[in-house]
């Protein structure tokens, strides 16, 4: 008995090659949809939010530590104001001093020994160091951090949350806070603070 080998259908390699881009496209579409669906979940948004809040607290405390180290070294704060408690932002004026740029060591500068009090190496959230070594520091939502310093040295500062109320103030030397996700310093519900 003879077997009819010609009746067996051989796979058409040209067909399978032609189908590959279609399969790839379909896979990419499905995967993209899944990723998009995950990004829209409340779980993901909550995870990002917690991660941002964690970053803010770490950064704010790092900034407070840097200002404290500056004071321990120079016996003054990195501001020119002496008579009133200073409220400043984490802009170039402050950060260049804490980073020890060349400008901050010039005549009349606040950091003549160019000591780097704020770490610029490695992954530091919100700090983009420029060519001259200077930078400004922003929170995950794009605003500067706000800093209040006991520049008059009486051991306390006004509570920035209740500036118009005649309260005893806070027994703190350095306060650092962020405007929070809404970017508004006046809305304290979401503001993040070090005290
Ligand atoms: Ca004070
Ligand atoms: Ca706010």
Please give a structural write-up.
The structure is a single chain. The chain has 195 residues and is of the alpha+beta class. The chain has a single domain (42-193), classed as 2-Layer Sandwich (Glycoprotein, Type 4 Pilin). It has 3 helices and 4 strands. It has a 4-stranded antiparallel β-sheet with strand order 1-2-3-4, with helices on one face. The radius of gyration is 29 Å and the shape is elongated. It starts with 12 loop residues before the first helix and ends with a strand. The mean pLDDT is 85. Bound molecules: calcium ion (2 copies). One calcium ion binds at residues 85, 150, 152, 154, 156-157.
Main features:
4 strands; Glycoprotein, Type 4 Pilin; elongated; 3 helices; binds calcium ion; 4-stranded antiparallel beta sheet; 195 residues; alpha+beta
Which CATH architecture is right? 2-Layer Sandwich
Which strand order does the major sheet show?
1-2-3-4
Structural class: alpha+beta
CATH topology annotation? Glycoprotein, Type 4 Pilin
Element layout with pairings:
Blueprint lengths: L12 H27 L2 H33 L11 E4 L2 H8 L46 E4 L24 E5 L13 E2 L2
Antiparallel strand pairs: 1-2, 2-3, 3-4
Bound molecules: calcium ion (2 copies).
One calcium ion binds next to loops.
What's the short version?
The protein has 195 residues and is α+β, with helices and mostly antiparallel strands. Helices cover 35% and strands 8% of the residues.
């Amino acid at each position: 008995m003879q077997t009819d080998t010609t009746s067996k259908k051989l796979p058409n390699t040209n067909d399978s090659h032609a189908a590959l881009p279609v399969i790839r496209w379909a896979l990419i579409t499905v995967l993209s949809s899944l990723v998009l669906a995950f990004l829209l979940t409340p779980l993901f948004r909550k995870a990002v939010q917690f991660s941002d809040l964690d970053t803010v607290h770490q950064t704010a405390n790092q900034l407070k530590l840097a200002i404290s180290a500056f004071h321990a070294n120079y016996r003054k704060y990195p501001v020119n104001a002496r008579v009133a408690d200073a409220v400043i932002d984490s802009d170039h004026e402050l950060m260049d001093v804490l980073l020890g740029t060349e400008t901050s060591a010039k005549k009349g500068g606040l950091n003549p020994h160019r000591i780097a009090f704020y770490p610029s190496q490695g992954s530091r959230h919100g700090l983009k160091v420029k060519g001259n070594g200077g930078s400004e520091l922003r929170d995950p939502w794009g605003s500067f951090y706000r800093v209040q310093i006991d520049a008059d040295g009486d051991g306390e500062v006004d509570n920035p949350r209740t500036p118009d109320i005649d309260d005893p103030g806070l027994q703190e030397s350095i306060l650092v806070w962020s405007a929070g996700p809404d970017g508004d310093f006046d809305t304290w519900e979401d503001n993040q603070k070090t005290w």
